[in-house]
Write a structure and sequence with these properties.
It is a single chain. By secondary structure, the protein is of the alpha/beta class. It folds into 2 domains: 2-103 and 117-139 and 301-377 and 548-607, 3-Layer(bba) Sandwich (FAD/NAD(P)-binding domain); 145-283 and 379-523, Alpha-Beta Complex (Polyamine Oxidase, Chain A, domain 2). Helices cover 42% and strands 16% of the residues. It has 26 helices and 19 strands. The strands form 5 sheets. It has a 7-stranded mixed beta sheet with strand order 7-6-15-16-17-14-18. A 5-stranded parallel beta sheet has the order 9-2-1-13-19, with helices on one face. Strands 10-11-12 form a 3-stranded antiparallel beta sheet. Helix 6 packs across helix 13 (270-280). The protein is globular. Residues 1-14 have low confidence and may be disordered.
Length: 608
């Protein structure tokens, strides 16, 4: 007994010493927020920022770091380092910056690619303060409708609808109203969600502690003993939900958010599921001005410190010297020969598979440590997108600023099996679920940019294998057979969308679809996945958490983005903080908490 107590105190001492260390500069030393300016509608002004095309003369001298990929994980880690006085170059292979944060235009319609809704953005939340600091308070957010999510079960036109309301009490009360007799089950479920979710920091702690300590916590089982997050990480959503209720419809509603991480409930970790439910309990927000505003307000932070963020810059290889240290990248600009750019730190937001399998030299890729990490991760399921342009304003079309999640049946395992075992030709008629929302309805400034035009986005999942035979053909030139398969999915998704929103039927002006191959080409998704590596139970295990860390087996090479922590905007942003903490040698989460306390204290004094 005494041995455990002594070991516990020793461990706490080591943890506090390592976490309170502050070797590098503090990016959160000063509150840089200022009153937000108006949303910029000038296309030329925005183009200069989000379409800043690579050329050798634009590369800053004496770089401190190079970031591969301009998704939120890449941009945010660059911004954090910039705030610490570092000169950082961000390189993006696409013509537009932002990764999943970018938008594109078609026939006068503006479509977002990957930012659909984000939670925990009330003004005093740590998450909001983090974003405000990275953008000097210029990135603004619009609160979505209440309910923020509507779950539709069964027939899309006449199926049962369940509203997910903002606020814990309203969320619970609405579920109770829909499921009389299940009040206790609903209360207990949300109680467990909160218990597990509030320990999501434990995932970051394991990645930030010295590796020997993390391994000790894992091998002794202490991590499961002290962390509800990891206790429930090894249990499936289906298993946990079934312990609260035998009502199949309620089970499905409690599981509906599985679409935000792309794994069906029988294989998904309850720990991640709980985090995502809690993330949206207080409502959901959308960037005012559209998803491209994220990049538009992040880039100046990087540039201000002497860095640059450049598009059309394809990184072909990470340079590794004879000491097995990353020292630069080989980059090819459009119409240019490849050239070398050097820096002492290389950070990759390209995903673990792209980084280890495509960007490292062969002799480095074969290192046992690299192969061991790859063995812990699996490719996520491919994503399929449908972008619909509709004539009319959101008021004329009665389009809500809410998301609609359509699930075809309450037997989710049967839906999954029937869909994934079907042929590509039959699968469009067996779609298990659809996520549908209106980006134009969520953004109050959309009408000013695109007058008289509205948009809907529909998303589902399709295995990469159904499209793989066309992977080596050029984009938009993959042939009639490919277009036929793709169009079958698009038309099935469009039909369901029209049943959910019948008022748009005669107003549809255009629609564009994107298969997993589209995702692979435009956002560099390895096998067309929306959420990076698979978010199954193994991915959330303590063993994987301690192995996939910001520092890699290659000195000077660091990971950031969805594959480091978890999926989505919030997951990738927190990954950036973890990566920057490792590079700067200080715990930036503690620095952020200190700044937040100062901001709240200042606000209180001002109010007195």
């Amino acid at each position: 007994m005494w041995l455990y107590i002594i070991a516990g105190f020793t461990l706490i001492f080591i943890i506090l010493k390592s976490w309170l260390g502050s070797r590098g500069p503090n990016p959160f030393a000063v509150d840089t927020r200022r009153p937000p300016g108006p949303v910029v509608f000038d296309k030329e002004m925005k183009r200069k920022v989000i379409k800043n095309v690579f050329s050798p003369e634009k590369v800053p001298e004496k770089l401190d770091a190079i970031v591969i990929g301009s998704g939120i994980g890449g941009q945010a880690v660059a911004a954090l380092l910039a705030r610490a006085g570092k000169r950082v170059l961000v390189l993006e292979q696409l013509g537009k910056l932002g990764g999943c944060c970018h938008t594109f235009n078609e026939k006068g319609y503006e479509f977002d690619v990957g930012i659909h809704y984000i939670g925990q953005l009330n003004e005093e939340s740590p998450f909001r303060i983090l974003i405000d600091q990275l953008t000097d308070g210029q990135l603004q957010w619009s609160l979505m409708d209440n309910p923020f999510d509507v779950v539709v079960l069964g027939d899309p036109k006449h199926g049962r609808r369940y509203n997910m309301k903002s606020g814990t009490k309203a969320y619970i009360d609405e579920l109770k109203k829909s499921f009389p007799g299940e009040e206790k089950a609903i209360e207990n479920f949300i109680r467990l969600v909160k218990k597990v979710s509030r320990r999501i920091p434990d995932l970051g702690i394991l990645k930030m502690l010295p590796l020997p300590i993390s391994r000790f916590l894992c091998r002794t089982g202490l991590v499961n003993w002290f962390s509800p997050f990891f206790r429930y990480a090894s249990r499936s959503v289906a298993e946990v939900v079934s312990e609260f209720t035998k009502n199949k419809e309620l089970q499905t509603v409690l599981s509906y958010i599985f679409g935000t991480y792309g794994v069906f409930p029988d294989k998904a970790s309850f720990a991640l599921h709980a985090v995502l439910i809690d993330h949206f309990l207080q409502g959901a927000w959308y960037p005012t001005g559209g998803a491209s505003e994220i990049t538009y307000h992040l880039v100046p932070t990087i540039v201000k410190a002497g860095g640059a963020v450049l598009s059309r810059a394809t990184v072909e290889q990470i340079l590794v010297n004879s000491d097995k240290r990353a020292c630069g990248v080989v980059v090819r600009g459009k119409g240019m020969d490849p050239g070398n750019i050097f820096a002492p730190i290389i950070i990759t937001d390209a995903g673990i598979f792209n980084t280890y399998e495509k960007l490292l030299p062969p002799e480095v890729k074969s290192m046992p440590e690299i192969q061991s990490q790859l063995g812990l991760m699996r490719h996520g399921t491919g994503g399929f997108s449908l972008f619909i342009g509709i004539k009319g304003t959101k008021e004329e079309l009665r389009l809500p600023a809410s998301n609609y999640i359509y699930i075809a049946d309450t037997d989710l395992q049967k839906l999954e099996k029937n869909f994934l075992t079907a042929s590509a030709e039959d699968a469009p008629q067996l779609l298990p679920m659809l996520y549908i929302s209106s980006p134009s309805a969520k953004d109050p400034t959309h009408e000013e940019r695109c007058p008289g035009k509205s948009t809907l986005t529909a998303l589902t999942f399709t295995p990469y294998e159904w499209f793989e035979e066309w992977k080596n053909k050029k984009v938009q030139k993959r042939g009639q057979d490919y277009e036929s398969v793709k169009n079958a999915f698009a038309e099935a998704m469009l039909e369901t969308t029209i049943q959910l929103f019948p008022q748009i039927k005669d107003k549809i002006d255009c629609y564009i679809s994107g298969s997993p191959l589209t995702n692979e080409h435009y956002i560099g998704a390895t096998r067309g996945e929306f959420y990076g590596a698979e978010h199954d139970i193994a991915r959330l295990s303590p063993e994987t958490a301690i192995s996939i860390r910001p520092e890699t087996p290659i000195k000077g090479l660091y990971l950031t983005g969805q594959d480091l922590v978890v999926c989505g905007f919030a997951g990738a942003l927190h990954a950036a903080v973890i990566s920057a903490s490792e590079i700067l040698g200080r715990n930036l989460f503690l620095d952020l908490m200190i700044l937040r306390r100062q901001i709240l204290q200042h606000k209180t004094k001002k109010a007195e």
